[in-house]
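Per your request, structure below.
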């Protein structure tokens, strides 16, 4: 029998009952697919990504979505970089919200993301090392993610 202290769905009770709720939109079933793609917060970023980065997620399966993004021939190498970068931005913004910091602005984030991705498209001869950053481009055929 539950005590009166266990009737409100506080975080500890939800965890004990194996219920994960999205802290951003309060959707009942939070998983990575929800957090990065389906959450109302994530959707704001995907809307802006369509305009700023010309990226659109196709219909993705809820269990194979990550494999679909990386392996589906409808996504090219440029799309992979954009999608992975955008997911990192969404995750960072979610973390800010859950840790009581300001969320990232989707428009500002897309501007910065577009600028960062433009650096990846520099011809290799011009992209030796960016001054002040110590960043070097990845070897041909490799993806480099600095965190």
């Amino acid at each position: 029998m539950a005590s009166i202290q266990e009737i409100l769905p506080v975080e500890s009770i939800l965890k004990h009952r194996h219920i994960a709720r999205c802290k951003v939109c309060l959707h009942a079933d939070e998983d990575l697919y929800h957090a990065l793609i389906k959450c109302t917060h994530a959707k704001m970023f995907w809307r802006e990504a369509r305009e700023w980065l010309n990226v659109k997620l196709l219909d993705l399966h809820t269990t194979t979505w990550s494999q679909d993004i990386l392996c589906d021939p409808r996504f090219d190498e440029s799309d992979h970089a954009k999608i992975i970068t955008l997911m990192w931005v969404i995750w960072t913004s979610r973390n800010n919200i859950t840790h009581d910091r300001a969320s990232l602005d989707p428009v500002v984030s897309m501007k910065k993301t577009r600028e960062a991705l433009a650096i990846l498209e520099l011809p290799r001869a011009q992209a030796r090392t960016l001054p002040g950053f110590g960043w070097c481009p990845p070897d041909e055929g490799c993806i480099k993610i600095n965190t």
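The mean pLDDT is 78.

Regards,
D.
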